[in-house]
Prior knowledge:
By secondary structure, the protein is of the alpha+beta class. The protein contains nine helices and twelve strands.
Amino acid sequence: MAGRWKNDLKWSDVTPKPLWQNRRQILTGVGAAAFAGLAGPGRALAELAASPSAFSTDAAPNTLEEITTYNNYYEFGTGKDDPSRNAGKMDTDGWEVRIDGLVDRPGTWTMDDILKDTALEDRIYRLRCVEAWSMIVPWVGFELSDLLAKVGVQSGAKYVAFETALLPDVMPGVHARVLDWPYVEGLRLDEAMNPLTILAVGLYDQPIPNQNGAPIRLVVPWKYGFKSIKSIVRITLTADQPPTSWNQAAANEYGFYANVNPEVSHPRWSQATERRIGSGLFAKRQPTEMFNGYGAEVAGLYSGMDLARNF
Ligand SMILES: Nc1nc2c(c(=O)[nH]1)N[C@H]1C(S)=C(S)[C@@H](COP(=O)(O)O)O[C@H]1N2
Ligand SMILES: [Mo]
């Protein structure tokens, strides 16, 4: 869609900035000139043009600094600041996503293919990690259902499986057997088709930083953060429930569904409350909401299911 980017730039024209700068600075001529210098020859600076969404929370987003320095991306290390220190070496130029399985048009998609005729939206979502911390993140993305419609989901498909890139040369974390790499995740097809489920390509109106899952990652806001798989290279439509990394690592701690649920404790800690990142050392924990507060949109997906058993 023309105008997806200001100046009609293509995804491949954009270099995510090595250093994140104040947005106000970007919009001034001085800032833009400084960036053009940083971006290097032949590369242009773009700001993602996205429309607002009724699905956004009006809660104040966490700062870009918080969102990009407190991360879980175990391929780059298990420390919260490991991804921001290590993920810069991942090269996302020429990224491709293979879409296959029970689809009418299997194939390999570049980011330009994926974003062609795709309207981007701002989605300011709550993110609740299974470790009982939370953030508010202003994603830029589009509904997964838009992409699935383009590939044509066949009637036998019941689940969607996702896979993260496995790049041992730049991912120090994959040399440790914390998980069985590559990181894999999955959704039931109706969960994948829900309008809340997005593929994010941006954050704070800029291409998504590597540590947050560049160049394209899943965001499923009513589920624990580990379902929102980063740096996707493969999407497969399947008839059977696909294996998922955390469930395989510890099935008694991490279920396939992983819906945020304050009433179902993790075996080692309560999920009733959460710590909002950036709220300060002495801030009160806040109550965790069923489905992370998205029950009006998604509770119907689970009617009749025992959510304590299907955790
Ligand atoms: N490939 C991959 N995806 C991943 C993870 C990971 O380690 N590897 N961590 C998950 C977890 S536990 C969370 S809470 C979110 C964190 O996303 P953020 O760092 O953008 O806040 O990413 C999820 N996606
Ligand atoms: Mo998480």
